[in-house]
Design goal:
By secondary structure, the chain is an all-alpha fold. Helix content is about 75%, strand content about 0%. The protein has helices spanning about 15-30, 35-55, 60-65, 70-90, 100-110, 120-125, 130-155, 165-195, 200-225, 230-260, 265-275, 280-290, 295-320, 330-335. The radius of gyration is 20 Å and the shape is globular. The relative contact order is 0.21.
């Protein structure tokens, strides 16, 4: 048997290092008083602008073309918004033995956010899988998640102290759905500009998320929420997340085989169906959890780095798999490959 080798370079996401530095800054110099109000207002505007850009980037035509490969996309959505949340609900039995209630809420929220786009595409490409299908699957997940994630969070976390109310629903609509819809409506006129300045706007994306993280963790420090977390609890959280990731990677791979997807589609299913998006989850948590957002996003940040490291190893291993022969393109296979990947809205996972 071929031995599984670790990649030469451990895929530590440089952006995650910036996120951790932002958390450290919030711990040392949290925003207080007037500064906190200004940071909160700027964070609210940043989230709205972030989802406006998401709407402007997503190509509606290509998303509709990708619907022809519906079996794969439905399976990815089922993994993301059904199987993941069920596992999250099952983890309730770990409270209070392994997890505190706030950490469990963050873990459950992690299971509700959409899949990634950029990293799913990258790993699918390395593993020689169906890249266009991964593009469409990630885009669909992000689009559906803008509506479904807040609804699931309100249903599953509403009774556990997450702070959900009619006011929270209104905030979701105003800060997430309205800007996204505006971006989609204006895409006809601004889509070209967004595509030409993708790198610059990508920096705006990441800067907005850093601001959201700083605001959330500052409020957490001021309120003293970090006294609720011990090193032992963090270690337990990492262990639980490792099991969660292993279960999803196994289910997506062998589930794809049971559903008779070919090798390329199984690879796209495994990488798109087992991941969670840090870029989408962080701003959503800022809207949904308010003062509790700092602990709510901690499980997501840890899971994000873990999935990058593990999936990098798997993608390299899959790239060395022998390919016995190309299959003739069926109706699903040909439809899964849009003419171009431009405008799909790829962004940091």
């Amino acid at each position: 048997m071929t031995r599984l080798r670790w990649p030469r370079r451990t895929p530590v996401d440089p952006y995650l290092l910036l996120l951790l530095a932002t958390v450290g800054l919030a711990a040392l110099l949290p925003a207080r008083g007037t500064a906190a109000d200004a940071a909160s207002g700027a964070s609210t505007a940043a989230i709205a602008f972030l989802f406006f850009l998401y709407g402007a980037r997503l190509s509606t035509r290509e998303a509709l073309d990708g619907l022809k490969h519906w079996r794969l996309h439905v399976t990815v959505l089922a993994c993301t918004f059904v199987v993941f949340p069920l596992l999250g609900l099952a983890a309730r039995g770990l409270v209070p033995v392994l997890l505190t209630d706030p950490l469990y809420q963050g873990l459950l929220f992690l299971t509700l956010v959409p899949s990634t786009v950029q990293s799913s595409i990258a790993f699918t490409s390395v593993a020689r899988g169906n890249v266009p299908a991964a593009i469409c699957a990630g885009s669909f997940s992000s689009l559906v998640g803008i509506v479904l994630t807040p609804l699931l969070a309100a249903a599953l976390l509403g009774s556990t102290g997450g702070g959900f109310s009619a006011d929270s629903v209104l905030k979701i609509v105003l800060q997430l759905l309205v800007p996204f819809a505006a971006g989609q409506l204006l895409r006809r006129w601004i889509g070209g500009f967004v595509a030409r300045h993708k790198k610059v706007l990508g920096l705006v994306d990441r800067g907005s998320i850093l601001l959201v993280v700083y605001t959330a963790f500052s409020e957490g420090v001021v309120r003293g929420v970090w006294h609720q977390v011990s090193p032992v609890r963090l270690a337990a959280l990492l262990a639980v997340e490792a099991v969660l990731l292993a279960v999803m990677l196994t289910l997506t791979w062998y589930g794809g085989k049971a559903l008779r997807f070919d090798r390329e589609d199984r690879i796209a299913l495994q990488f798109a169906g087992s991941k969670k998006s840090l870029a989408s989850g962080l701003p959503m948590a800022g809207v949904l959890f308010g003062a509790h957002a700092s602990l709510a996003v901690l499980p997501l940040m840890l899971f994000h780095q873990m999935q990058l490291m593990v999936c990098a190893v798997i993608a390299r291993r899959r790239s060395r798999d022998p390919v016995t022969g190309a299959e003739p393109p069926g109706p699903d296979r040909s439809a899964a490959r849009p003419r171009t990947a431009a405008g799909t809205g790829t962004r940091p996972g």
